[in-house]
Amino acid sequence: MDAMIPLCRAALQPLLADRDFVALRKHQPHCGLLFARGLVALPTTQTSAAGSGGSGGSDGSDGSGGSGQPAAGECKARHIAAVVAAANAARGGALYAAAYDRWCRLTADDRRFAVLDAPLAGRLYIGVARDNALETGVSLSHTYGMPFIPGSAVKGLCRAAAGEWLAQREARRYLFGDDRRPRPANDARAADAADADPADAGIDSEIGGVIFHDAWWNPADEAPPLVAEVVTGHHAGYYGSAGKQDATDFDSPVPAPQIAVSGCFRFVIEGDPAWTRLACRLLAGGLQQRGIGGKRSSGYGHFLLNPSPPTDRA
Fold it and tell me: What is the pLDDT of residues 96-113, one digit of tens each?
């Protein structure tokens, strides 16, 4: 039997295998915890043995149903499929639906908030992290376990769109702030900053005039929240050796299981109405023309909108 890499503390493994806990996890899953902590172990081999059975998956089984162990990629794919199935079946449940409705009510005042509801044209890679056992990831709410787009990513997209469409530097500075603004020479903080880090001497920072909130996934949309995907690399040796090993037609493809997002999101920008409307136009144009998240050049992260972005270059 192939060696297994434990991903869970030994003291917790009996709890995860408990029949009542497994049943509860199937019917009332927190998809964020299930995705991050539901895989108990991974095999060390990358290729599967003949006659292999399940292994250490999200269903709570011990995976010893065959003479060998499945490949690590197969275990990851099964785990992702279980998370996707749980998320699509529960869709956040009544708790998430109530929280989403509450968020919509709290941001309904158009004198304070600008709201944009945008459906994805395809799928979205957001929060793809490689520093974990699954070598992939997705941004899921810690509270509800449902996908979201961080406000920092929304702000970054709007800032990039403003660099292309908004010529007025002071307008960009008000919207997004200024991280590297010269500090007055007589400011006492300059000396303190120089003592802490000489590179920060004479440098101040300024926050923006609007707030970019996290974008919530809309539970009323018919599209599933999560989708299982596969990215297949054909020259693992070439890329893994930084080009030192030649890439040939004889290289074996290595499927890499991934998890993506689909559906509709509600974007909320808070601040003065004149500025939030401008930021919302930048956001709409950026979501359609630039996209957000990873693999945008392959068509991911684009939304179905028909914006008229500001063009004050003249």
Answer: 999 999 999 999 999 999
